[in-house]
């Protein structure tokens, strides 16, 4: 009894080396919001409010999302309006950092 090998035929389709268009590196998301807490060391909590339209009724609804942001010099206080920028993960919840303080609270 002879063992026969089945000839494997590979398709001779040429491989294309076209690179997919990618977004340039360094473009990071930015958000503006209000500081709601600054009790932690080098960390603030920023509430970002956005308006979205209800799918059925068309009414605009306010949605609030909290972001934990890194504040290296502890200069932000509650009530400040800040701009935060996305960065690498710094802790379990913190992956944003303060880019600038737009308006200081009184």
Overall description:
The chain contains no helices and five strands. The protein has 106 residues and is mainly β. It has a domain at 30-103: Nucleic acid-binding proteins (OB fold (Dihydrolipoamide Acetyltransferase, E2P), Beta Barrel), CATH 2.40.50. The chain has a five-stranded mixed β-barrel. The model has no long low-confidence stretch (mean pLDDT 87).
SSE order and pairing:
Blueprint: E1 30-37, E2 43-53, E3 60-70, E4 81-86, E5 94-103
Parallel strand pairs: 3-5
Antiparallel strand pairs: 1-2, 1-4, 2-3, 4-5
Biggest sheet descriptor: 5 strands, mixed, barrel
Radius of gyration: 25 Å
The amount of beta strand, in percent, is: 35-45%
Report the structural category: mainly beta
Query: For this structure, what is the CATH homologous superfamily of the domain at 30-103?
Result: Nucleic acid-binding proteins
Order of helices and strands: EEEEE
Q: How are the strands of the biggest sheet laid out side by side?
A: 1-2-3-5-4
What global shape is seen?
elongated
Number of strands: 5
Mean pLDDT: 87
Q: How many angstroms does the end-to-end distance come to?
A: 94 Å
State the gist of this model:
With 106 residues, the chain is mostly beta strands. 0% of the residues lie in helices and 43% in strands.
Which properties best describe this structure?
about 110 residues; single chain
């Amino acid at each position: 009894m002879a063992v026969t090998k089945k000839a494997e035929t590979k398709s001779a389709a040429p491989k294309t080396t076209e690179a997919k268009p990618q977004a340039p590196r360094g473009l990071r998301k930015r958000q503006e919001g209000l500081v709601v807490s600054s009790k932690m060391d080098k960390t603030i909590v920023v509430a970002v409010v956005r308006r979205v339209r209800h799918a059925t009724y068309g009414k605009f609804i306010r949605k609030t999302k909290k972001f934990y942001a890194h504040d290296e010099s502890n200069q932000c206080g509650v009530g400040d309006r800040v701009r935060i920028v996305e960065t690498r993960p710094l802790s379990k919840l913190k992956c944003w950092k303060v880019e600038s303080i737009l308006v200081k609270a009184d």
